[in-house]
User: What shape does this take?
Amino acid sequence: MSKHESAWLHVSGTARFTEDLTLDHPHALHAYPVQSPHAHAKVLGIDTTLAEKSEGVVRVLTAKDVPGENDTGISRRDEPLFPETIEYAGQAVVWVLAKTREQARIGAQLVKVEYEAMKPVLDLKDAIGQGSFHSAPIRMARGSIDQALENAEHLKEGELDIGGQEHFYLETHASLAKLDESGTMYVHSSTQHPSETQDIVARVLGVPRSEVIVQCTRMGGGFGGKESQSNPYASVAALGAKLTGKPVLVRLSRAQDTTLSGKRHPFHARYQIGFTSEGMLQALKLDLFADGGYSLDLSEPIVSRALFHSDNAYFIPHMQVTGRVCKTHKTSQTAFRGFGGPQGMVVIEHLMDLIARTLNLPPHEIRQKNFYTPEQTTHYGQQVTDAWKMNRVWEEALLRSHYLKRAEEIRAFNAQSKNPQNKNRVRGLAITPVKFGISFTMTAYNQAGALVLIYQDGSVQVNHGGTEMGQGLHTKIQAIAAKTLGLPTEKIKVMPTRTDKVPNTSATAASTGSDLNGGAVRNACETLKDRLLEVVAKFHKLEKAHLTLTDGAFWHGLEKLWTFEEAVRSAYYQRVQLFSDGFYATPNIHWDREKAAGRPFAYFAYGACVAEIELDPVTGMHQVLQVDIVHDVGESLTPSIDRGQIEGGFIQGMGWLTLEDLRWNDTGMLATRNASTYKLPTLMDAPDVFNVHLLENVPQEGVVFGSKAVGEPPLMLAIAVREALKDAIHTLTGHFADVPSPITPEVSFFASSLKKTHVLG
Ligand code: MTE
Ligand code: MOS
Assistant: This one.
């Protein structure tokens, strides 16, 4: 069992999150936003006089206080920190600093803002109709699409709406900033991307990056929501600290967090799909429109990833997929576990079901026979050399779940659904695959650094560029360092992530945290190991190559030469350097943006999921009876953590696809701001039977210790639940379940009754 490196702190309630740092800074000021009630408006005037007189209020931060740039946009300058034009309901206009949070709240209520309201674009389809886009279309294509569609044996076309998702990390956005005596700004931030936070804070303050240090000890969840969107809060805290000389804390309430920060992109898809009478894919033409919200943020790479995954695991000879980032007056939608991949995959899985229902063939057969073979390439030109793994994962999932036998049993059960003891319920079963590309599609981001320090007593500190958000990265890093240095994990201390230990880091994202930072840490540890081996070999007059370092000692065969500590002490007195940096850059990846072709991914992660549900058409409610997952994590560094990622990712995906329903009111204000109105999955929604199996004997070549990324791919396993629900609806109506996502109980209810089909959508 691999124990999470902070397990004890977590369960004893002593792990510190950013807000808890105020325990050490009792005089920190609290910042509170004044949020716009309008989705689109001009700010005509701001009157802060009353607020400034209010008890405890120290200062109101406005645009004129910004010494550097009044903008925190990461892709372009489109996110003013203190805006003149309001672009979404809830946008922060100014921030009030006070001695207590309550005083800051009252102060914020006393700020008078005069607005001139303008007409907002709130609906994705309105944005498409009006041509409200952030950027040019992104396209990937191969073959001759129009001809192939024309000649297709069967042709289907239609549309699909896919809802967004609130991250609902347990810890909302938080930053604490303070100055040191030399004017260096220290920012503790709940951020997945400390280097970018450093960059944006420096930009807002108008200072070089060397004047700003960003630290992230841990996050209470990020899920992509803190990849780019922590920067404004860090900037407000830093600006406040600079102007007042006091530490400043920004910590959002849940309702502030959900109304200020971006979510998973809602998508609208338009498709034309051609296939043979045997169910072989011939051609796919797909237009994906993403609701990017008010600013560009990460929307372009997110839409790209949706296009990269619009094939999922299937070879489609002729393909043309086009993506557009639409501009609406909403929060700026952002990274969320899977980064657009899930939306792309929901569409193709929907279509595999459509093909099966059209041809009246079993969906699982249609899916499997369209899998890539190892000679084939994707629509962007990457060969799927280990496509055999997809088949292996799939076959194991079928076998372990007794898929065929249960399909029969379910058929028998459903035939009896009118039986009083079945209470009209019907069951649905589905299996869906996951093939997910690992690497940042922006090739330059695929680099990482580390700094490993061995002290004279043989104890070890590891610094690396990745951040801990509950995914267990630090635990994996600890395991990698321990394995390389031949030490027990307790001897390795993983330090908080800081920009002054490892510079120019990438976001901990794209599931690459352990591949990249683990690679860098291993590299640093190998350097140190080599130096120590040299010292030991020299002293014992032996060949370095004949020595091993394991179990805390240096060995020559079975003979223990020195303990690790003895070797370290000796190295010190011989003036051998006992610390090292390490670096890793993913080899053999490239991407030509213009041609939309290349080898953007180091490898693919594979998984398959079987889900069985029971639907009550009277209420639309369902229960997930059983889930069987087979997932490929290579040689797991920490099996219990990987299992946790698979279970957690699956449940999070299931919530997105079946429960979580973002709603905005007529003015564009988010209506589902809290857990009272936004339905999150709980333990009660977890499958009654939940089997997770890690594929065995599949070390991933070229990745640290044969391991494999696991953070995002399992989320998409939950598409099996959506497809199982559609299977039940199909059983009830005899028609292809042409339902949007999420399939909430309302959607199931209307779709299950023939008369009411298509009412929602
Ligand atoms: N797991 C937990 N518990 N909390 C999180 O915030 N984020 C996910 C995933 N698993 C997340 C998580 C996302 S979006 C990503 S990209 C990866 O973890 C990032 O970490 P890794 O690259 O180290 O896997
Ligand atoms: Mo994860 S969406 O790449 O932070």
Remarks:
- The two ends are 46 Å apart (CA to CA).
